[in-house]
Structure formats: structure tokens, C-alpha cells
Specification:
A four-stranded mixed beta sheet has the order 1-4-5-13, with helices on both faces. The radius of gyration is 22 Å and the shape is globular. The protein is α/β, with parallel strands linked by helices. It is 45% helix and 15% strand. Helix 1 runs parallel beside helix 3, helix 4 packs parallel to helix 9 and helix 5 crosses helix 14. It contains 16 helices and 13 strands. Helix 10 links the parallel strand 4 and strand 5. The structure holds uracil. Uracil binds next to helix 9.
Amino acid sequence: MNFNMNDLIIKKRDGKPLSTEEINWIIDGTVKGTIPDYQLSALLMAIFFRGLDRDETYALTAAMRYSGDIVDLSAIRGIKVDKHSTGGVGDKTTLVVAPLASACGVPIAKMSGRGLGFTGGTVDKMESIPGFRIELEPEEFLAQVRDIGMAVIGQSAHIDPADKKLYALRDVTGTVDNFGLIASSIMSKKLAAGSDAIVLDVKCGEGAFMENIEDAVTLADLMVDIGYDAGRRTVACITDMSQPLGKAVGNALEVMEAIDTLYGRGPEDITELSVKLAGIMIYLGGKAETPEDGQKLAGEALTSRTGLTQMRMFIEAQGGNGDVIYDYSLFPQPAHSLELRASCSGYVAKINARQIGLASQHLGAGRASKEDKIDLSAGIVLNKKVGDRVEEGELLLTLLGNDQTKLEAGQRLAERAFRFSDEPVERPELIKEIIGL
Ligand code: URA
């Protein structure tokens, strides 16, 4: 069927729903390049203001999912479980959760993304391990999951090309923040990636797309419904992103913290969240009777260090130097460091995750545009978290990087992230809600 793009833009602009045939035609034209960017951008803006109803969102997800290759994981035995985070600051959970779940027998065949803006991406983090290859041929990828139970690769250019095109346009036309567009973008990629079950970590707070709990629940509900509609067991955890997760922000720094966590000496929040998420994955993967039993198994994989052994095998299978788990000097090292100390005494009331993410990006740990090269050694290590007591002059954080001028500017940005209180402050609730269990 053929449609007129201008008519479809007007239809959406006037608040009328698009039919599945119309959405399929738009996605086909997006991938083939027959619809110009200016018309796609106008449609995205119309969607941004008018929204997508459930049927439109399901139809858009399905059309994007099938816009390119579909990963076939049927050659791998067992229930494959994928995990996705909507993106945050200091979020290295994949690097802990994947080895823990895999050590408990859940096959992990994961595609991850790069960071953009102030949020980090797993692919960039993995590249800080000397020798690590993030690009594997499809046969290598499947063979590795069969052999050692785990592989993590970069998003293939052939999977969901429609999302690639539309996300790039959304990124420069002010149309990212829309429930239907975010849900269909994330879920079309996850569904095309071939796993049988999906665990979503929906971040909530100033350092995330969803700044409040109501919006996070709306997005999580929508994604869980899309997953079930497509026949995949899908669970969403809404988790705190009002302050950075863990203490390390930056690529090599976050891999080191993930390894520390697998040793059982990581920060409390990253440990708790990783065990929770891995527990749900172990349950969905059929290796535990209940999510609680799954958590118990994940906790045992941590204390027995089988998760750490799995991490080492995974690093080596992808060409990386597995000795990094003993020797952090093998990671890229920053030439300079700068401290930020408290100018008053009190309790830490707030550490704005977005502000810390922006400071870390400024040091070189993140990209402002896709073409930027990142400094894998750069980032921030927090010495305090919300609720901690601080005395005047005490260390709040350390900035690391290769450019002294950037460190000084980063220090000013990071300073603005902190708020103090004279009264004791409660730590924010880490896991706010679980949907779909
Ligand atoms: N992550 C995605 O993959 N897509 C979005 O739209 C937002 C976050």
C-alpha cells in the first residue's frame, strides 16, 4: 500500500491515530531512505506532542523490530535472558549481573550500546580492558555463549536500522522524551536481539530520562506490556538514579568497580542491585523456583567468586587480558588527578547524578557527539554518598583524566552536584518498584 507522508504528518498533528499499515509504510520508507529527514522529523514532533496509543506503540515496535536482521539464539540451549538499563550515571550493573547470572547457568547473549551525553555505555566500558574485542562475527558470538555461557557485543548495524535512523533524528530534534518513542525504541532492539526473557532496569531520578516515579512506572508498564504482547516474559525494576550508582563514574573506573563487586567488596548499592537483578534473571531463566531463590543463588555466586571466574573467562574469550581482575594497573591510567573537598560539615543530602555525569563527560569519559573520542581512563570516584556524614575539608570525590584544565572545570561542575544538611539524611530507596513479576 502507498501513502502520502504529508497526509500522515497532518493526521498525527491533528491527534488521530496512525494505522498499522501506515506505520509499517513509514518504517519501510525510513530504512529504504525514501522518506526525507525533514518529513520524518516533522512526524516525530507531531508524535512528541500528540503521543502514541498502545496499538500504535505495539505496531511501531513490531515494524522497527523487523526492519533489519533478527538474532536467532535457538542454537543455544536453555532460556536466554537479556537485561537492559534505560541509562544512568555510574551504571555498571551489566558487568556484574551478566557474570553472576551466567555463573548460575543462565545463558547470556547480550548486545550493548555506547554511551551518549552524560550517560555511560557498556561497550565503551568493556573497551577499557586491554585487548577486549567488542565486535564478534555472529558465529563467534553464538559459539562463545555455547562454550562459556556468556558474550557481550556492540549493537550490530544490521539490527533495527529503523531505530538507528529515528533515534539519531530524535537526538537532534528535541523528540527523545516521549513514552511511546522510548518504549518502542528499547523494546524493538531487545525483541530483535532474540532472548526469551527480558529484565529492564528503568532508572528514575535527575540522572535518568525519567525524573519522577510516575513517569518511570508509565514507561515500565508500557515496556512490560510490549514484551508480553510479543510473547516474552518481561520484568521491569524501577531503580534510583538521583545519585550516581556505586562510587565510580567513567569507563575503566567502572570496570574496576564491577570487578571489586564480583570480589564481594563493591559499594553497597551496586551490590544490592546486581544481586536483585541477577536473581530475577536466574528465576526467569528457569534456574530458580522463585526470584528470592534466584537472589540467593546470585549471592552465592558472589561469595564463592564463581561470578568473578565467569568474568575472567568472558574477558579472555573476547581477547581481553584476564589478569585485569588482579592487576588494575593494566587498565588505561590517567596522568592527572584533582580532589574536591567539603567546604562545610554536615550530612550529604544530594549528589545530583546528572551533574556528576556532566562533569565526568567533560573530563573526557563521555561523548558530546557520536564522533568524539573518549578518554577511557577519565572519570570521577566518589568518596561520599547521600546520607554520609562529612566534616569540613574531608574528601568528597577525586577527578581523574589526562587534561589538567578539564579537571579544573570538571571540579567546578562536580561541586554544584552536592547539597548538605545539618540534619541526618535518609538514603534514597534503591529499588522503588518491580513490575511484571
Ligand atoms: N534508549 C534507547 O535505546 N532508546 C530511547 O529512545 C531511549 C533510551
